[in-house]
Amino acid sequence: MKKIGILGGLAWPATIEYYRAICQLSQNYHSQFEFSGPSPMPEMCIESVNINYSFNQRGEIGNEASWNEYDKYFNSALQRLEKNGVDFIIITANTLHTRFENITSGIDIPVLSIYEAIADECKKQDIDQFLLLGTEPTMKSNSLPDFMCKKAISVLPPPTKDLKLKVVNLILDLFEGKTENGSNVLNEVVNSAYLHMDKKQKIVCLACTELPLAFSGKEQLATFIEKEVTYLNTTIIHAKAAFDYALQ
Amino acid sequence: MKKIGILGGLAWPATIEYYRAICQLSQNYHSQFEFSGPSPMPEMCIESVNINYSFNQRGEIGNEASWNEYDKYFNSALQRLEKNGVDFIIITANTLHTRFENITSGIDIPVLSIYEAIADECKKQDIDQFLLLGTEPTMKSNSLPDFMCKKAISVLPPPTKDLKLKVVNLILDLFEGKTENGSNVLNEVVNSAYLHMDKKQKIVCLACTELPLAFSGKEQLATFIEKEVTYLNTTIIHAKAAFDYALQ
Q1: What's the mean pLDDT in B29-53?
Q2: Dist. CA A111–CA B156, nearest whole Å
Q3: Which residues from chain A sit within 8 angstroms of residue B9, using beta carbons?
Q4: In chain A, N or C: fewer CB atoms in 10 Å?
Q5: Number of domains in chain A
Q6: Cβ within 8 Å of A, B 36-65
Q7: How many A/B residue pairs have CB atoms within 8 Å?
């Protein structure tokens, strides 16, 4: 198996779910073979950053120079992973993918995009539109909608500032492992958002790798349905893509 | 805060508990300060190895040459952590500490010993004897008992082969995240072991970082009492020592 580089700590609860998912996928995969001792695992290197520092280096959408420090902090982390000898890298946050080109600049090994993994999952499930929930930069930037547009998937952001703020505040709690009442908050946001829209199917992309933690017991499911809403769990979708690639 | 290097994957469920513990300790510590955004975290680099490979490279106690491959595999991983730029390292397994001198050979940054952390905790709690439960090499080697002897702590291994085997088999389940019935197995082992001994206090050192996972809900407690037995959780004792050191 290829060695997996993981840019983590964004925040720590999501990093745990990525790592757990990859290890359990490896166990499941190897259960078809005979081996002695514990199940074979891909080697991994996790570079876990200080999210407080990076959060406070976020720039403004549209002002390129304001992101310099942010980009540099993560680019250095990716360089350390490359020097470690990993075969490829995953970045465990949707937010960072809004700066993908800049952050991965000069990195000579593959970096598996979470957007690509989400688009592949949508194709597999015949999904052509979803409501986008994520951090402020993810919901504000055109990065994810533009990417999905090229794959013929329409991305709907929450229609009001108030709904966006509810998601942003929930994420701050989830960053610290506080999950109480999270699924109710999201359910409310989703129903309010879809009130404004003429769609027969409610599909939500949890495009912050912390958001699936709001649904206790469903953290490890790539997609799940709750109260007639289909949720895309980008954490597990991305972790699965990484494990599949490690096997190739 | 200092950057923490973690040699992990031994096995993955214990690595999760170490990482979770350090992140939660950082949150608790920083809750006394004002800051904007998510809680500050120490930077970390986790080198997660393939436990199937290392398990099958285990040598025989007393036959130095038979451990060559095992020592080399882990020494290389520590070298990668040192090159990454971490300030110090923790090795997340008691078993590896039986080969501590060999594995850390040539490493020029501090490696915080789990034995030292256990001895410090014993001193704090006025503990001068414990039953040792761990992997086969940990229970068979003189490494941990000799270390504790110098700290005036007597180490009692399980008195029969059968009891040792029960612990070894339980650990193989825990390596894969299977925790069902684990606490009952350990309770039985402890009571049988103490039947043979004339001790007023039942104190058990869970000297395999996976063993605390057998006690659901207590994985994050450095010490805990269950059915009149005091358990030392070496995973959390070691993680706390690492966080304290990172703060210094």
Answers
A1: 97
A2: 50
A3: 41, 43-44
A4: C
A5: 2
A6: 36-53, 55-56
A7: 121
Cβ contacts of A211 within 8 Å, gap of 6 or more: A133, A134, A167, A170, A171, A174, A186
* Residues B65-72: contacts with CB under 8 Å, at least 24 apart: B67/B99, B67/B102, B70/B99, B71/B99, B71/B102, B71/B103, B71/B105
Separation in Å, CA B174 to CA A185, A220, B160, B178, B210: 35, 19, 22, 5, 6
Angle between helices B114-124 and B234-247 (to 10 degrees): 100
The reply to whether B145 and B58 lie within a common domain is no
Interchain contact, A38 vs B176, CB within 8 Å: yes
**Domain check: are A40 and A74 in the same one?**
yes
Q: What is the CATH number of the domain that holds B186?
A: 3.40.50.1860
CB atoms within 10 A of CB B60: 11
The phi, psi pair for A240, rounded to 5°, reads -65, -45
Domain that holds residue B40: 4-114+239-247
